[in-house]
Amino acid sequence: MTKKEKKSFNQSLAEWKLFIYNPTTGEFLGRTAKSWGLILLFYLVFYGFLAALFSFTMWAMLQTLNDEVPKYRDQIPSPGLTVFPKPVTALDFSFSMSNPESYRGYINDLKKFLKSYGLEEQKNLTNCTSGVFFEQKGPEYTSCRFPLALLEACSGVDDPKFGYSTGRPCMLVKMNRIIGLKPQGEPRIECILKGENTAVLSTYPSNGMIDFKYFPYYGKKLQGSYLQPLVAIQLIFDNRNDINEVTVECKIDGSPNLKNQDDRDKFLGRVVFKITMRP
Amino acid sequence: MVGGFSILLWIGAVLCWIAYGIQYSNDKSSSLDSVYLGSVLALVVVLTGVFAYYQEAKSTNIMASFRQMIPQQALVIRDSEKKTVPADQLVVGDIVEIKAGDQIPADIRLLSAQGCKVDNSSLTGESEPQPRSCEFTHDNALETKNISFFSTTCLEGTATGMVINTGDRTVIGQIASLASGVQNSKTPIGIEIEHFVHIVAGVAVSIGILFFIITVSMKYYVLDSIIFLIGIIVANVPEGLLATVTVALSLTAKRMAKKNCLVKGLEAVETLGSTSIICSDKTGTLTQNRMTVAHLWFDNQVFVADTSEDHSNQVFDQSSATWASLSKIITLCNRAEFRPGQESVPIMKKAVVGDASETALLKFSEVILGNVMEIRKRNRKVAEIPFNSTNKFQLSIHETDDPSDKRFLVVMKGAPERVLEKCSTIMVNGQEQPLDRSTAKAFHTAYMELGGLGERVLGFCHLYLPADEFPATYSFDVDTMNFPTSNFCFVGLLSMIDPPRSTVPDAVTKCRSAGIKIIMVTGDHPITAKAIAKSVGIISANSETVEDIAKRLNVAVAQVNKRDATAAVVTGMELKDMSPAQLDEILANHSEIVFARTSPQQKLIIVEGCQRQDAIVAVTGDGVNDSPALKKADIGIAMGITGSDAAKSAADMVLLDDNFASIVTGVEEGRLIFDNLKKTIAYTLTKNIAELCPFLIYIIAGLPLPIGTITILFIDLGTDIIPSIALAYEKAESDIMNRKPRHKRKDRLVNEPLAVYSYLHIGLMQALGAFVVYFTVYAQEGFRPSTLLNLRVEWEKGYVNDLEDSYGQEWTSYQRKYLEWTGYTAFFVGIMIQQIADLIIRKTRRNSIFQQGLFRNKVIWVGIASQVIIALILSYGLGSIVALNFTMLRPQYWFVAVPHAVLIWVYDEMRKLAIRLYPGSWWDKNMYY
After folding, report:
1. How far apart (Å, rounded) are the C-alpha atoms in residues A180 and A134?
2. Membrane-spanning regions, if any (chain A) (predicted)?
3. Are residues A167 and A138 in the same domain?
């Protein structure tokens, strides 16, 4: 008696059929048409209400926000350091000097990025005094010019290939934008080669100086034309007939409030990348 | 118990390790996060398993300690020497000696016996002493007089016997193995939990597979799809539920143990609550298990004696001279004596040497007359003829305590018809009258009336021997019977019964109102059984059996429509000839049934018949003979005091006070825990949606992940544990003893409304509330909701370190990660705050919280405090531990979800209000779980 007789296949099939549509009660999937109608109506109303409520709360929450400045900036006290061209999968750039296809992406990236630094684009910007913060009270905000000439050989003006075709590739290093950030001391970006030195590294502007006049940043809404200061580095490889591989480390230096050493955040005020050049 | 969840979690753990394997093969330096998560999941499975095992073992331990194993000794003659050896060392052919008080150490065939009587109650359940001699009287070993059985006790006399069976081959061993042969079926709550696991696992697996397909077709990497799948599984499985359910059950088990119901397996706690039929043994469970004087008949009148447990008020008229004579016979014609050294013990509890009837008479007279032994001393016994089954009477001759009266007094008691034969006169109001036809008729009417009550009737008579014929020096010889044995004076009748316990009728009424059918199954006579059934209410006052109707209408039994009778008394003999269909018919058509003269096998058949009716059957019993039925029953209930070890080990529950009324407590607790488990599960399931939605939104809308798997585990195994246990302390919403037992197939623990309401109503509201907190945190840090859409891919790229927010600021990947953890914490806090509201609304299913009382269950508030404290510790105390993914959250974010929590409460109050206002409506059917 303990064993229950197994339902035969036909029996369970018939049960399923009855569940899907029961002709005697008119039930479809266990409910009558009226019941289904009520259920659908109920959920329509209920979910409609929930959606409206959610939209309203979100709207109300957004009303509390400031359009110009985020309410809190505690999670990004210190800027990160990033490089251009944009890395594709990792901070590992490789190209072949003789193959333009291999570096075209890098060049386009650099061009695209430097487009906003073009003479035409900087026409309406202000020439600011070097060495002091460019503080503004509004209501109109403007931005300081960043002459491309500061990047010298890496400006892309003289060499539209940014040195990639000649074995002297350029990279741009920039500090992340943070609203209201005012660096202290003498901030500069210092880059060094790590490991075996098979190349010579040049920095433009020399010493990688970052001018105070580009700070503080007032946010996208107020200061849409803002140009962040850049530092370019150029690698000049000794032996262009061989595969050259160098690791470059850049750091923000000389400013006590810009951190460059954090155990967890490997990009806080520093960046390490690798460049491989094949002939 | 919740095996299905363990399997899901194992799958999750293995997927984690597979994911790491894929990561590792691509990138040797990949993080060990998935390995940790996998190990945590495996640990959760193992720990909850160990915890459940520990809880089970703890309650089993109570049982083990309860069973006192006293090594039994046997006196055996070996090598012509008497030796004492442990009973388990006996072998077939050993000669053993037995004396009064011994337990029989094996099945033995008697070689010699002197006045040996045994108590076979451990075997048959009936404690009537049975004489044993060395004569072979019956083919059936159980009936013959020259065999004594293992585990029965010798009450008086001595005997020598040869061991014929030992251990498992003894009759009792065979019954025990019959019991172990009966398969233990799943408990009702076990089935319910399995059903619930199927639902949850079904939801988890189908959502998991659906989204796996979606992610694969959205061209996500397989690795990512696997990680999503893990998240979905972890979110869907209520990891803490196994522990919670176990704790809730063991809390109830503890509570029941306090009320004298000892539960062996935790799951059996609920079974009594869903019980719809109780098959109760009579002797010892419903009755006091001792013969007690119930009625007296003298002076042509029936008097009622007090049969309550302490005999305290005997109110019948004791002024008649007839009573004086009757009481003298009762006192003197009795061989039973109190064991010495019991001066301080109340009379009814004193141990007596003697059989059940004599004990009853002794105690009865001791209560009314005072010191019986003193009276006997004053009326010195000069000769006696003990009771035997051929004479059917007992006689003794005494000197009287009246010094002026030199006559001897002969007193006699016995079977009423035998006693009457020996009488020529009858005493009425102290006067002897000739016994004529009318008085004889009065006697017969009284005899039939008392016999019809199922009572054992004894007749009493006496005779004063003339002093001249029988001088003081006369020597009486009981063998030659040199004294008259006829022309006695009949004094009265006295009837005895094993009376019902005083608490039983009330308990039966309570069971009745709780919709539980009580069936009496006994080895006793049908008449006695019916009488007891009537007196405790198993057969109610105005219901009739087929035989009663036939008698009332004066027609043949066959002519009565069986449907008219609500009650039925079925004997073992009738049951033997019945087909299962006929038994089913009886069980289905009669609401009040008594089975009498049944054998252990038939008990089993009756239980199976009840189970065929889709009933959940409880069986009570104490003897070894009951153990197969106890095992077969959905819940076997053994008696703790009188119960045999075999019965106790076969049972799922032990009544420590042998009191049927304790069963009512068990039913109540069982029903309460069923209701409360519903609440616990509803509470636990709700947040699953709030944990699942983040993953779905993450996959579909590409938001940064709102909540991590580790964080989910902290909800399931951290903040939610104590609150869900607290619901087990909730009081009943209404009188749970006034509703029908739940239907095995229809009233499920987790039904559609419960799942739908938890998942699609409250769960969804919770998810929305938590998302509000999440969006608030991101927006106030610079990422507006519009920016977050489809940001997932860029957000998660480790080498993108200048991701722009809505304000033009740029974030490194670690800064984003930290913000993501803040988001986890925010979402966690959002769920936690709303779980407080969820906990409060789950206190009731129908009544308003204000009807139930917000503060009546203090443990709920302990639960709420624990939630908040754990969350505070996680956010502020452990905020710096990176592996746990918690960060310090601004204090104001803790309150963002509060309006949603209030909304949940209001919505649920509205639901309950509509259910109360429109019972049976569409709303009630779909919204009441």
Report:
1. 11
2. 38-62
3. yes
Interchain proximity B776–A61, CB inside 8 Å: yes
> Residue B744: enclosing H or E segment and its boundaries?
none
Cis upstream peptide for A147 (omega within 30°): no
- DSSP codes of every residue in A64-91: TS-SSS-S--TT-SS-BEEEESPPSSSS
* Domain co-membership, A48 together with A92: no
| SS3 of residue A46 by DSSP | helix
pTM: 0.83
In a shared domain, residues A199 and A86 = yes
Q: Based on the domain organization, do A150 and A109 belong to the same domain?
A: yes
Task: Report how many domains make up chain A.
Answer: 2
How do the residues of chain B divide into helix, strand and coil, expressed in percent and rounded to 5?
A: 50, 15, 30
Identify whether residues A108 and A215 lie together within a single domain: yes
Q: Are residues A32 and A95 in the same domain?
A: no
Query: In this structure, is residue A216 part of a structural domain?
Result: yes
Can you say whether residue A209 is alpha, beta or left, with left for phi > 0 and alpha for psi between -120 and 50 degrees? beta
Structural domains in chain B? Answer: 76-181 (2.70.150.10), 261-287+501-658 (3.40.50.1000), 292-474 (3.40.1110.10), 671-897 (1.20.1110.10)
Contacts of A221 in chain B (CB under 8 A): 807-808
Q: Give the CA angle between residues B145, B147, B152 to the nearest 5°.
A: 105
Domain-embedded: residue A66: no
List of chain A residues whose C-beta atoms are within 8 Å of the C-beta of residue B753 = none
Check B775 against A271: CB less than 8 A apart.
Answer: no
Verify whether residue B468 is a known catalytic residue: no
What tens digit of pLDDT does each residue of A202-228 get? Answer: 898 888 888 888 989 999 888 888 988
B176-213 exposure pattern, b = at least 16 Cβ within 10 A, e = fewer: bebbeebeebebbbbebbbebbebbbebbbebbeebbe
Is pLDDT larger for residue A90 or for residue B728?
B728
Which pair of structure tokens corresponds to residue B683? Answer: 């509470």
Query: Percentage of residues in chain B with pLDDT exceeding 70?
Result: 95
Q: What are phi and psi of A88, to 5 degrees?
A: -95, -50
Helix (H) or strand (E) holding B535: helix B526-536
Whether residue A228 lies inside any domain: the answer is yes
Length reported for chain A = 279
Q: What is the pLDDT of residue B65?
A: 45
- Chain A residue whose CA is closest to B767: A54
Residue B810 and residue A177: Cβ atoms within 8 Å? yes
What one-character DSSP code corresponds to residue B762?
Answer: I
Determine if the peptide bond prior to B86 is cis (ω within 30°).
Answer: no
Structural domain including A53 reads 11-61
The catalytic position among B33, B94, B281, B634 is: B281
* A115 and A208 co-located in one domain: yes
pLDDT surpasses 80 at B311: no
Range list of β-strands (E), B234-331: 261-263, 277-281, 292-298, 301-304
Same-domain pairing of A118 and A25: no
When pLDDT is averaged across residues B85-110 and rounded to a whole number, the result is 87
Contact A267 B813 (CB under 8 A): yes
Structure tokens at B196: 């619930």
Domain assignment present for residue A68? The answer is no
CATH code of the domain containing A215: 2.60.40.1660
Question: What is the C-alpha to C-alpha distance for residues B679 and B349, in angstroms, rounded to an integer?
Answer: 47
CA count, 13 A, side-chain hemisphere, B601? 5
Burial bucket for residue B101 (CB in 10 Å: 0-12, 13-18, 19+): exposed
Q: Are strands B393-399 and B381-385 parallel, antiparallel or unpaired?
A: antiparallel
- Write out the two tokens for B586: 């009886």
Between positions 610 and 629 of B, the ones with CB within 8 A of A are: 611-612
* Terminal C-alpha separation, chain A: 85
